[in-house]
Design brief:
Number of domains: 1
Radius of gyration: 18 Å
Number of strands: 9
Number of helices: 1
Strand order of the largest sheet: 3-4-5-6-7-8-9
Structural class: mainly beta
Order of helices and strands: EEEEEHEEEE
Strand content: over 45%
Distance between the termini: 44 Å
Shape: elongated
Largest sheet: 7 strands, antiparallel
């Protein structure tokens, strides 16, 4: 809360998030105007994954990216790759 006049409270915005049509976060912007973005890539057979992303690319405020890959059936990460291309396969 940023102020209160005894009757009405005024709330302070600390972050704003935009979402895509599936409710997934795309852009997160903090109160100091720093933002991070996320893009999603679906498989070539969208019917098999119900249009869920199998790869996500996240860019933070420093411009660094990470690319987790998901197993569509469980929506759990199966691999992660950093901006240098180092890949970690998760069991």
């Amino acid at each position: 809360m940023s102020s209160h006049d005894g009757t009405t409270a005024t709330h302070e915005t600390t972050a704003v998030t935009t979402h895509d049509g599936y409710g997934r976060p795309e852009v997160v912007k903090s109160a100091i105007t720093a933002s991070s973005s996320t893009t999603y890539a679906s498989s070539t057979t969208c019917e098999d994954t119900y249009l869920l992303a199998i790869k996500q690319t996240v860019t933070n405020i420093e411009g660094w990216t990470t690319s987790p890959e998901y197993t569509p059936a469980w929506d759990l990460p199966s691999a992660k790759a950093d901006m240098k291309g180092r890949r970690i396969d998760l069991a």
